[in-house]
Specification:
CATH topology of the largest domain: Rossmann fold
Shape: elongated
Helix content: 55-70%
Distance between the termini: 22 Å
Strand content: 5-15%
Number of strands: 5
Order of helices and strands: HHHHHHHHEHHEHHEHEHEHHHH
Number of domains: 3
Radius of gyration: 29 Å
CATH class of the largest domain: Alpha Beta
Bound molecules: adenosine-5'-triphosphate, magnesium ion
């Protein structure tokens, strides 16, 4: 916001009016460099106290700078509206001198903040980040022995729904699971997918990670690839549709569409999945953060995932923080429980913080995490 205000300040020629053009130029340069690493700094502040203090210093300085910019524009408005005042008016001259001095102090302050930035080796924003995110967001159906705590009731309800719906005359049921990021939707669905009853019930199970872009061609390709093990190398939607229907026709299948963000192309995909009515009780499980996605896609009310019970979230945290180390330090356990309370039932938060504190045996390191604004 301050960067934008600085630019407006230059454009409105206020910088020239108040004789602080060169200072504003330098401030803009420093702030742009700082802005580029802000995301990384915000992520690092949880672990590194110095980065947290630096961000605080930056935030304080940005507020002071913004106040100065405000004062300048108020004074300029006064100057414009009051015909009797001129730039040579003593009050205006004093103001100009005062602003010049304060701006110089701001330049020094931001110069120092920018120099400190270099010491932290913060990463700039990389254009490939989106692509990296896409790859990072990919999920698959596999599970390991230790990775679920709680969620017994949810698993039971969903398994029951799947057995019931795929048996009924309704040939195509879509069951959305909704909840905020990191609440454990994908994890839960993975367990359902690998549940023995589910494995027995369906002829075919398919897992597709949809992610931010709902790309029908890519989803159909994934269906073919995961069932046949080969990339179909088909370039048209029509050919892919035929191939997918060949696979699904006459089958009782379970399709997981994990991490759906939009429904623009859902009708197209749905028409392929229906196989002209030729399926034998198909069920689709959808995970999404977006309520409207659930209501558009669902053939029944969505399953709203609740926060993880605190006891289960504690077990998750404990597993990651202490690992197989059987000796749990009483003081750390007490702080850890407070950290888990602050996680508000988010398994992602509890797992991330637990892993962060693994091998950290100093109480102060735990207290720092507890007191950080995660
Ligand atoms: N019940 C659980 N027991 C153990 N770990 C869990 C549990 N639920 C979630 N996790 C862990 O928390 C993290 C986030 O879970 P998950 O990816 O399932 O969330 P999500 O709701 O699908 O998030 P997103 O909306 O970002 O896709 C994962 O690392 C997962 O292993
Ligand atoms: Mg997920």
């Amino acid at each position: 916001m301050v960067i934008e205000n600085l630019q407006a300040f230059i454009q409105d020629e206020l910088a020239t009016l108040w004789g602080v053009h060169s200072q504003i130029q330098e401030l803009s340069g420093n702030l742009a460099a700082i802005h580029a690493v802000l995301q990384d700094a915000e992520e690092k502040q949880i672990r590194e106290r110095v980065v947290k203090l630096w961000l605080q210093k930056l935030s304080d300085a940005a507020h002071v700078l913004d106040d100065i910019l405000d004062e300048c524009s108020i004074e300029s408005n006064r100057l414009q509206s009051d015909q009797c005042l001129t730039r040579l008016d003593p009050v205006t001259i004093m103001f100009r001198r005062d602003i010049g001095k304060r701006m110089k102090e701001m330049v020094d302050r931001f110069r120092q903040i920018d120099e400190e930035r270099r010491r932290f080796e913060l990463r700039g924003r990389v254009p490939e980040r989106q692509q990296e995110d896409e790859a990072w967001r990919q999920t698959c159906s596999g599970i390991t022995k230790h990775n679920i705590y709680g969620r017994e009731q949810d698993t039971e309800n969903i398994v029951e729904f799947l057995s019931r719906s795929a048996d009924s005359s309704n040939d195509f049921s879509v069951y959305p699971i909704v909840g905020m990021g990191g609440l454990g939707k994908t994890t839960l669905v993975r367990w359902v997918y690998n549940d023995n009853k589910v494995i027995e019930h369906f002829d075919l199970r398919i897992w597709v990670c949809v992610s931010t872009e709902f790309n029908t061609m890519r989803i159909l390709e994934s269906i073919v690839e995961s069932t046949s093990g080969h990339n179909p190398n088909l370039s048209t939607l029509e050919a892919l549709k035929n191939k997918v229907q060949e696979i699904l026709l006459g089958k009782r299948y379970l399709l997981v569409l994990d991490d759906v963000w939009s429904t623009d192309k859902w009708e197209d995909l749905k028409s392929v999945l229906l196989c002209g009515g030729g399926t034998k009780g198909a069920a689709v499980l959808v995970t999404t953060r977006v309520e409207s996605v659930a209501s558009v896609m669902g053939t029944c009310p969505a399953h709203h995932l609740s926060p993880l019970f605190e006891d289960d979230n504690w077990l998750l945290f404990k597993y990651h923080a202490f690992g197989s180390d059987k000796v749990e330090h009483t003081e750390l356990v007490a702080i850890g429980k407070k950290i888990v309370k602050k996680c508000g039932g988010s398994p992602l938060a509890s797992k991330a913080l637990g892993s962060l504190l693994r091998n950290k045996k100093e109480e102060i390191q735990w207290v720092n995490v507890l007191e950080s604004k995660f």
